[in-house]
Amino acid sequence: MSSPATNTTKTQLKAGLRARHMTMIALGGSIGTGLFLASGGAVANAGPGGALLAYACVGIMVYFLMTSLGEMATYMPDSGSFNTYAARFVDPAFGFAMGWNFWYNWAVTIAAELSAATIIIKYWFPDSSSFIWSLLFLALIFLLNVLSVKGYGESEYWFAMIKIAVVVLFLIVGVLMIFGIMGGEAVGFRNFTMGDAPFHGGLLAFIGVFMAAGFSFQGTELIGVAAGESENPRQHVPRAIRQVFWRILIFYILAILVIGLLIPYTTPSLLGSDLTDIGVSPFTLIFDKAGLAFAAAVMNAVILSSVLSAGNSGMYASTRVLFALARDGKAPKMFARLNSRGIPQNALIVTAAFGMLAFFASLFGDGIVYSWLLNASGMCGFITWLGIAISHYRFRRAFVAQGRDLNELPFRARWFPFGPLFAFLLCAVVIVGQSLSYITADGIDWKSIFATYVSVPLFLILWLGYKWSKGTRVIPLKECDLDTGARQDM
User: Fold this and answer.
1) In this protein, which residues make up the domain named Amino acid permease/ SLC12A (predicted)?
2) What is the per-residue pLDDT across 342-388, written as a single tens digit (0 to 9) for each?
3) DSSP, residue by residue, 102-137
4) Is the CA virtual torsion 262, 268, 270, 275 positive or negative?
5) What is the phi/psi pair of residue 247, to 5°?
6) Nearest to 79 by CA among 298, 317, 403, 356
7) From its phi and psi, is residue 185 left (phi > 0), alpha (psi between -120 and 50) or beta?
8) Residue 488's CB: how many other CB atoms inside 10 A?
9) CA torsion sign, 181 to 263 to 162 to 81?
10) CA 243 from chain center: how many Å?
C-alpha cells in the first residue's frame, strides 16, 4: 500500500527551477565567506603560492565531484539526491546515514548563519537586539522557501548576482592595481616572491589551508538536490555543472592570485579576517588601497547577502532531503506531506524550528556551541562529498555490469574512474589531515578535535545502527536499481 502513495507524493514536487536558477545555485553555493574572509588567512598561513595551490587542488576535486553528481542527477533526478543514490547503488543503510547527515549538516548551517548575520548587522546597529535580528532573518528565509520553489530559486539568483558583481569588480580593480593603472605604482610579482614566498609555513601550513579551501567550496553539491525540481534536468544540470569549472577558475583561483599579488602575506591583519572585523577582509583592504570610498560598508553588505544566501540554501536543501527520507520510509511520514504549492511544509517547519533552537543554544553557550556547530557542519560536508564519490563509482560500474550502453546517459562524467577516486582520496586526506592543524608546540587541542570529529561517529552510528536493525547489505552491482525514477522523457 505504501509504494503507490510514495510515488504519488514524489510526483507532487513542482518543477519550478529554470536554467538560470540552476546555474546560480551551482555558483552561489561556491562563493561565500570562505572567499571573502578566509582567503586572507589562507594567504597569510601558507603564502600566496601555497594558498593558490590548495584552492586549485580543491577546485579540481569539486569539479570532479560535480560531474559525478551530474551524471547521476541527469539520469535519475531526485530531491533526495545523495541519500537516494547511496541507498540504490551502495547500501540502504549507507543512504540512510547520508540523508540524515546531510539534513543535520544544513539544518545546523541555518543556525550558524543566523548567528553570523546578527554579528554582521551590528556593523550598522551595534546596540540592537540579536534576538530580533535572528527572528527577522529566519522569517525572511522561511517565507522565501514556503511560498514556492521558484521563490527560493529567484532569491538565490539575486543573492548570487550580488556576489558575482563584487568579485568581478574586485578582479578588475585588482588587475588595474597590479599593473599600476590604479593605486599608484605597479606591484607586479613583488609580493608573490618576498621573504620565503610563494610557499610559507611548510607542509602543515599547506594542509591547514587545504582544509579551509575545502570548507569554502561546500555548497556546490546543492545542484544535486535542486535537480529534482528542475523543469528540464537533462539540459539544465549539465549546463550548470559545465559552468562550475570556469567559475571556480575565475572566481576563486584568480581572486586568490590577485590577493597574493597585492597584499604581502606578512600583513598582520590578514590573520584576523573574521565576521567581527570586516575591515581586514582582503577584499576590503584592496578596495581601500584603490581609494574606493565606503569599501568596508559595501563588503559588509555583500557578506551579509552571502550569509543569508547560505541560510536560504540550507533551508531549501535540508527540507528536501527530509522530505525524501520520509518518502522512502526513513523518517516520519508527516514530513512527506506537501502543501498546495508542492512544498514539504512540515519538513520546512521542523527544519526551521531546529535551526532556531540551535541558534538559542549558541547564544546561551557564549559562542562555544556556535563554534561546535560550525565545525561539525563542515565535517558533515566532507562526509557528503565522500558519499557522492562512492555512489558514482558504484553507479557507473553497475551501469556497465548490467549491460547498459553508456550512450544512454544524458550527461557522462569524463575521466572515470579517475574523477571519483581522486575526489575520494582527497576528501579522505582532508578528513584525516584536519587533526594535524590542532597539534601545536603547546600540545594537542582536544576540544577542537572533538568539535570537528563528532560528526564522524554520529555518521557511523546511523549507518551501522540501521544496517544492524534492518539487516541490509551492500547491493551487488547487477542488482542495483537503475530504472526507478530514471527520466526517459527528456
Assistant:
1) 21-472
2) 788 898 999 888 877 766 655 654 345 555 666 667 788 889 899 99
3) HHHHHHHHHHHHHHHHHHHHTTT-TTS-HHHHHHHH
4) negative
5) -75, -35
6) 317
7) beta
8) 7
9) positive
10) 16
